[in-house]
Amino acid sequence: MFESLSDKLQDIIRKTSGNATLTQENTDEALREIRRALLASDVSLIVVKAFISRIKDEIIGRDVLKSVNPSQMLVKIVHDELTKLLGFEKAELKLDTNPSLIMFLGLQGSGKTTSCAKLALKLKNEGKKPLILACDIYRPAAIKQLETLCVDNNIDVFKIDNCTDVLKIVDEGLKFAKENNNTVVIIDTAGRLQIDTEMMAELFLINKSYQLNEKLLVIDSMTGQEAVDVAKNFDEQLGLTGVILTKLDGDTRGGAALSVVYTTGKPIKFIGLGEKIEPLEDFYPDRMANRILGMGDIVSLVEKVQKTIDIEETKKLEEKMLKSQFSFDDFLNIQKQIKALGSFGGILKMLPIPGLKNDDIDTISHEGDKQFKRIEVMISSMTPEERMNPNLLNASRKQRIAKGAGVSYEEFNKFILQFEQMRKMMKGLGTLKKGGIPNFKGRMPNFPFK
User: Residue 442: its pLDDT value, please?
Assistant: First the structure.
């Protein structure tokens, strides 16, 4: 998300930081460039004007041009204002009743039904018991899609076959929820190609008849400026409580997200990445501002590692590595854990690497993923005994494995040499960790590897 905007803003900041001092002239030039970058990324003109105006006010108010480090001050101001534009702080779901009732809204194709399942999966992982009501009475395929998603992920779903009365589905669904001890009920309403009277009348009925904890609008982040009009329309007529942005890993400029928050005053509560049914991610305005300005997002990466990586398994692998008992199966295990975190690109975007553009990240990610697959194929071509004991690999075995993996002998041999070097290095670190290098007096230790 925001890839184009991110690259442009980072370029502007780098140019500004290269100036020994900030003058009125180069500051005005930086603001003009920021204005162009925001407009090119689909941020609406009214939002851009307000954003630039607030930055100017801050620059004057803090007397930035005369400060000790004006470039860093300008970066901080842009960061702070971007955070405010994105919603300032994380917005929590209001789930203070039992069961709590959440209504999903959105146009057809926005990813609404998939997002219902993703939120349900997130709530389930947090210890709640969600139920989704199939209220898209106009599109049988939507109900079938919802059923499939719920069955595949062990999520409760309620439907009434051939029923065209939405209120009846909600009434019966709430009764089912109380009997089934569901703590959160999610209503998947019907979407249309555009907002119409019939659609709104149906949503009005639900809104008027039930005490809704949340009314969440699902927006496809690739929609562009149309997203702003959709959000305004829904908010004016129903009073939204928050927004879910989907398809943020797609080829999108992302500016519409900034415009939606500013125009409606409603927070982005969650973001969805891809079509795979993985839990929706919480939206943190400050972390997203960090990513846009190339400052990384270490906190989110650490949280992802904590949720994804098996700590006990990692400790066992560490012990094996330090004792030089590391096998090819262990290597595959590490690859599996890294892949669980997402793509190389996704990880790199969370790291604060100065000067690394999104095109560079895409290239590195592509090459890294490709290399992972080649290594997986090479290891899979070994026998179980060979994978467990790398010392078994003589010349004839290497030739057989290389042929089976469809790689040259030289490429396979290079991988084995790198693997052995890594094992030696890990063994050396293990010796150092145990204090096995005596008489160390401030000089570099003589590791048993080159």
Answer: 42
Q: CA 324 → CA 201, 223, 300, 378, 425, distances in Å?
A: 68, 53, 32, 21, 9
Q: What 3-state DSSP class applies to 18?
A: coil
Q: Output DSSP code: residue 271.
A: E
156-158: strand order across its sheet: 156-158, 130-135, 184-189, 100-105, 214-220, 242-246, 268-271, 281-282
* Start-end of H helices in 3-131: 3-17, 24-40, 45-61, 70-85, 112-125
The secondary structure of the chain in percent helix, strand, coil, rounded to multiples of 5, reads 60, 10, 35
Q: pLDDT above 90 covers what percent of the chain?
A: 30
Pairing of strands 214-220, 100-105: parallel
Residue 272 is predicted with a pLDDT of 85
- In terms of C-beta density within 10 A (0-12 exposed, 13-18 middle, 19 or more buried), how is residue 302 classed? exposed
Its sign, for the CA torsion 214, 84, 248, 365, is: negative
Q: How far is CA 212 from the centre of its chain?
A: 28
Model-wide pTM > 0.70: no
> How far, in Å, CA of 212 to CA of 185, rounded?
10
Longest dimension (CA), the chain: 83
Amino acid of residue 274: G
Under 8 Å between Cβ of 8 and 41: yes
* Neighbour count for residue 425 (Cβ, 10 Å): 16
Q: Report which of 30, 35, 34 is spatially closest to residue 15, judged by C-alpha positions.
A: 30
Model confidence pLDDT, tens digit, residues 84-98: 888 878 889 999 999
DSSP 102-166: EEEE--TTSSHHHHHHHHHHHHHHTT--EEEEEE-TT-HHHHHHHHHHHHHTT-EEE--TT---H
* Residue 55 CB burial class (10 angstroms; 0-12, 13-18, ≥19): buried
Is 169 within 8 Å of 135 (Cβ atoms)? yes
Q: Read off the pLDDT band of 218 (50, 70, 90).
A: very high
Token readout for 238 is: 């129903």
Beta bridge pairs of residue 101: 185
